[in-house]
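Assess the record.
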Amino acid sequence: MKVCIVGSSGKLGQYMVQQALARGDEVVGVCRPESVGKLDAFKGRMTIVPGATDNAEVIKQAVAGCGGVLVVLVPRGVHGYSTGTAQAVLDHAAPDARLVFSCGWHITRDGQDAYSWKLKALVNVLGPIARLARFADLDDQVEACRRVFASDTRWTVVRGSDLEEGESQGLPVWSRHVGDPILESNLTRRVDFALFMVEALRNDKLVHEAPAIVGCQMPSALAHAADARP
């Protein structure tokens, strides 16, 4: 499969590049020009399209001929970066392409998620501070996902828990709603978040799903293994 990875120079993006290449995929990466050097480890093994990920022309070039698009939705700044990125992918990816977007647990599709006081505080207190500092805008990521949910593309929105570094523990488990017991541990290895994203490209059961994930070896995942979804 030819796969475009939008936001390929970040930690999650680099893990996705590594895993897509390991599967024999042809990889096209999009990242800001100043970040191209972060992908030097993959030189000669992937194509890089430098440019802002919310630039429609950059995305149009990068996704041409791709059967899968992996998108890191980053709420950078206060100018709609995530929304612009998502819209460009929705507008220019092939109609039958698999589109897989990453975001956090704070995104809800149906309003049925049950959030902890800690996550609510993070969103309600630190979110406005980040926006005032013009560093990030979580509402931008909310709008980006709203547009994805409303589209008729073959999308999946993967909602990540808190992340840590470390060796892979295997494919994360998932549930439809934050607050489900299997997700209680709220921790996933970043490399496994990337693994779930790449695997989702070939899992049609995840089309039009917004799985919330947690590491498969975390206590809550082990305690509720019978509830794990395929």
Remarks:
- The radius of gyration is 17 Å.
- The chain has one domain: 2-227.
- The domain at 2-227 is CATH 3.40.50.720 (Rossmann fold).
